[in-house]
TrEMBL record:
Domain Pseudouridine synthase RsuA/RluA-like: 85-239
One Pfam family cited in the UniProt record for this chain: PseudoU_synth_2
Family membership: Belongs to the pseudouridine synthase RluA family.
Annotated catalysed reactions: a uridine in RNA = a pseudouridine in RNA
Protein name (record): Pseudouridine synthase
InterPro entries per the UniProt record, alphabetical: PsdUridine_synth_cat_dom_sf, PsdUridine_synth_RluA-like_CS, PsdUridine_synth_RluC/D, PsdUridine_synth_RsuA/RluA, RluA_PseudoU_synthase
Length: 294
């Protein structure tokens, strides 16, 4: 894979210029030792070479091949967007994001591996940018090579990659405000290997929500995550007394006919890692949540 830039600054080293473009030390080492190339004005150069204003810098990244332990699993993907760098899919319920000791195959990562094999892509390592809980539906992003993954991970950490959810909550709905930010630290629940809880010793976690509508004993909320802790939305709404409908783990109402937490990743907003164009992708609510609202 080839990437090129025009130098827009006065004298600097090739290494520093590439670092400013998001090329990490790890990627530079891969280019150096695994068959890649660094070019300045079509001439092979090393990282210490001094580049000048107007020079054309090109990197050629070696193919990744595939991760042999990631098994392909045949399943049709609902593809929302795809280019040579990114793949965004609509994740269904009852499917884990990545293999684990509980779900060793049949995850979204396995589905994507099968798709890559069918398309005969050169790069078949699975790079998950945004994960979703097993029973959470909606937009899930994969990077199609390591450089794109690193670039999107930076956006995820900085907040440039924005994730918006819709949730249906129950409990004491009088505690919900029209617009509120929940700022409560989250850590592991000592009584469970899966469950999280609000705890003073936990990691900083911020969830912003707006109340969309209330219908008898169910409220629909639009949620934006400002941090990415495990089970964050589920833990925060449970902590304020309004757990998600169907969320057995965190005390949600199980009498509404929904056998999963009512949570859907509805929108992603981010800058394309290479074109820098702002992209927005949105999905409607899944049928089970829509029917419950109606």
């Amino acid at each position: 894979m080839r990437f090129s830039w025009t130098v827009d600054e006065e004298k600097t080293t090739l290494k520093r210029f590439l670092n400013n473009k998001g090329v990490s030390r790890r990627l530079l080492a891969k280019i150096k030792f695994q068959g890649g190339t660094l070019l300045v004005n079509k001439q092979v150069r090393n990282t210490k070479y001094e580049v000048n204003l107007g020079d054309i810098v090109t990197i050629i990244i070696p193919d990744e091949g595939e991760h042999e332990t990631m098994l392909p699993f045949e399943s049709k993907l609902d593809i929302v967007y795809e280019d040579e760098h990114l793949l965004i899919v609509n994740k269904p319920t009852e499917v884990a994001s990545i293999p684990s000791q509980y779900h060793k195959n049949g995850t979204m990562a396995n589905y994507v591996k099968y798709y890559y094999n069918q398309q005969q892509y050169v790069n078949r390592i699975i790079h998950v940018v945004t994960r979703l809980d097993r029973d959470t539906t909606g937009l899930m992003m994969f990077a199609k090579h390591g450089f794109a993954h690193a670039m999107m991970d930076k956006q995820l950490q900085s907040g440039e990659l924005k994730k918006y959810y819709h949730a249906l909550v129950g409990g004491d709905l009088s505690r919900l405000k029209k617009h509120e930010t929940i700022d409560l630290p989250i850590g592991r629940d000592e009584t469970s290997i899966i469950k999280r809880c609000v705890t003073e010793n936990g990691q900083h976690a911020i969830t912003e929500y707006k109340l969309v509508e209330t219908n008898e004993d169910i409220a629909q909320v639009a949620v934006q995550l400002h941090t990415g802790r495990t089970h964050q939305i589920r833990v925060h709404f449970s902590a304020i007394g309004c757990p998600l409908i169907g969320d057995e783990l965190y005390g949600g109402d199980l009498t509404k006919g929904l056998n999963r937490q009512a949570l859907h990743c509805q929108k992603l907003v981010f800058l394309h890692p290479f074109t820098r164009e702002e992209l927005t992708f949105e999905l409607p609510l899944p049928n089970d949540m829509e029917e419950l609202i109606e």
